[in-house]
Amino acid sequence: PRPPALSKLSSELCAIENSGVFSNYGPVNTQLEKALTDDLFDGLGGCLTTSSATIGLILAIREAAELFTDRKYALMPSFTFAATAHAAIWAGLTPLFCDIDRDTWAMCPRSVKQILETYGDRVACVIPYAPFGNCIDLDFYERLTSKYNIGMVVDAAASLGSLDYSGHNFGAGFSNPVVFSMHATKLFATAEGGVIHCGDGDRLSRLRAMGNFGFTQSRVATMLGLNAKLSEIGALLGLERLRDFKEIVAAHVAIADLYKTQLPEFTFQRVVGQRVAYMFMPVLLPASCASRRRMLIDAMARRGIGVRHYFSPHLAEHPFFASKCVIGDLTVTQEIAWRVISLPMSDKMAVEEVTAVCKILKEEMGVLLWELIFYHPAKLPNSD
Ligand SMILES: *Cc1c(COP(=O)(O)O)cnc(C)c1O
Questions:
Q1: Probe ligand 1: pick from 81, 237, 342, max atoms within 8 Å of CB?
Q2: With a threshold of 0.85, does the pTM exceed it?
Q3: From the alpha carbon of 186, which atom of ligand 1 is closest?
Q4: Sign of the torsion angle spanned by Cα atoms 76, 77, 82, 83
């Protein structure tokens, strides 16, 4: 992603300088929150900006857990970014990891229900992650949270631009906080920044006060607080990003479609909803090649192509989280994390570049497979 060009914003930056207002939910920030609500969330609910999505998650999780001070767990997938678990720990909870669905790579409803049967009365908050911007079934969680009477916050860091089945941005108008990132590496790229979207206005007001030192009246703390505010400069970048966001999303969707047509032999994430605003292209290697992922990534790098493996290691494999968290059955998580790679994607990637990446990937996979067949035929499973 390319954040908005700073060099083109001199008059807007001068206006901020002349206003003398640099932060504290100033006029540029107010304009951004309204524009996000109107343009991205079709006027549903409201938005509150934060200095990052991680800070937004900490705020929202802490606020949700406040109702259940005698409970200690935050239920979340292990297949997510470190920020989800860190945020829960900062909010005073212990992450409890559960497994994901084999096709959508989101928390598996069966696994969630199973864990809640055992830990239900000790779970303060469930924190589903919308993996790689793919939508998740929020109605399922709505029913679940009322059945078990637990809090909920959605980590939707990569979901600005993703559309659910009704054609709204993921999370639009949802009753619990949905947290998005505007980090430079996300599709809605600024520099640093987050957005909490919520259909519940009172909840959003409380989070706004918490994000401003817990002040409800002028400079009087009436609740737990911290400084979660986005600066006016950060808000300006957000407004600028909003201008060309539709084109950026369209470009990424077109690149994702190209990858999918050119790599029919690979397993992609099953799309939930109308559109995923992918910021890179996650794909599974055939199980027979997964043990050679490092070699494949190195071979691709030698040919000038950057390939990553996001969320692998998954959280339960990080030493810090392994020592702090409770780990459920993660059979599917292990397999997906073992096989996943992320292919390059950027706003201006040309058709020929995608084609070249696919061609080189297939060539390098071919080399790996040959070696496996030639030197280690016994290691090749019959399937895949
Ligand atoms: C990027 C990301 C975050 C953190 O967002 P920041 O704005 O960088 O704090 C949290 N969770 C997930 C799943 C992410 O991908």
A1: 81
A2: yes
A3: 1
A4: negative
Locate the ligand 1 atom nearest the alpha carbon of residue 84 and give its number.
Answer: 11
The DSSP symbol for 266 reads S
Q: How far apart are CA 163 and CA 177, in angstroms?
A: 17
The region, left, alpha or beta by phi > 0 then psi within -120 to 50, assigned to residue 214 is left
Q: How far is the CA of 182 from the centre of ligand 1 (A)?
A: 9
Per residue in 214-241, pLDDT (tens digit) is: 999 889 999 999 999 999 999 999 999 9
Q: Which residues pair with residue 77 across a beta bridge?
A: 98
Closest CA to 369 of 357, 358, 381: 381
User: How many A from CA of 219 to the centre of ligand 1?
Assistant: 30
Spatial separation of the C-alpha atoms in residues 307 and 250, rounded to whole Å: 22
Nearest residue by C-alpha to atom 13 in ligand 1: 81
CA 198 to CA 301: how far, in whole Å?
41
Q: Whose CA is nearest to atom 1 of ligand 1?
A: 157
